[in-house]
Amino acid sequence: MVRSDGKETKVFQVRSDGKETKVFQVRLKGKETEVFQVTFQNGGTMTEQEKMAATAYAALDEKKGADIKVIQISEVSIMTDYFIIASAGSTPQVQALINNVEEKMQEQGYQVKRIEGTRNSSWVLMDYGDVVVHIFDMEDRLFYDLERIWSDGKVIDPAQLQG
C-alpha cells in the first residue's frame, strides 16, 4: 500500500500464465475508485475485463470482504471471463459489499446486467457480463464451494495480487 497526497493506492499484480506479470494500480479516493498507471512487463496493455476484475476486487477488499478469490474462467467457459468470490461475516456486511461493488463499478462506467439474490440473501450474484461477482455468507460459501466447481479455471490468489 502506497500513500500519496493523502490518497490510498494499492498495487496489484496479476499472473495469468506464470510467465507474464501484469501490473496495475487502483487508487481509492474516498467514494471514488480509479484504475491507473497500467504497465505490463511484456509491453502489452490491460484488457477491459482485467480493469473490471481489478475494480470489483478493490471494492470487496475496501469493505473487508473475506477470502477474496479471483478465478479466470475464460478458457473453460464462454459464460464470463472472471469469477470473483468473497465472503461476508454478516448480513450487513453482505449489503456493504454489494453497495460498494455497485458504486465502484458504476464510477468506472460498468453497469450491472443482473443481480440474483436480495440484499438479505446469503448468496448474491452480481453479473457484469465479463465479470461475475459472488458474495456469500461464510456457511453458504463452504456449502456451494464454487472454487471446487470451477477448479479448471486459473485461480489468482488475492495474497499474490497485492504488491
Which CATH architecture would you pick?
Answer: 2-Layer Sandwich
CATH class label: Alpha Beta
The CATH homologous superfamily is termed Beta Polymerase, domain 2
Examine the coordinates and then state which fold CATH places here, giving the name of the CATH topology.
Answer: Beta Polymerase, domain 2
Distance between the termini: 8 Å
Number of domains: 1
Q: Could you explain how this protein is built, in words?
A:
- With 163 residues, the protein is α+β, with helices and mostly antiparallel strands.
- The protein has a single domain (47-161), classed as Beta Polymerase, domain 2.
- Helices cover 29% and strands 37% of the residues.
- The chain contains 5 helices and 10 strands.
- It has helices at 48-62, 91-107, 138-144, 146-149, 158-161, and strands at residues 2-4, 7-14, 22-29, 32-40, 66-72, 82-88, 114-116, 123-127, 131-137, 154-156.
- The protein has a 6-stranded mixed beta sheet.
- Helix 1 (48-62) packs antiparallel against helix 2 (91-107).
- It is globular, with a radius of gyration of 15 Å.
- It starts with a strand and ends with a helix.
- Residues 1-7, 13-21, 36-43 and 159-163 have low confidence and may be disordered.
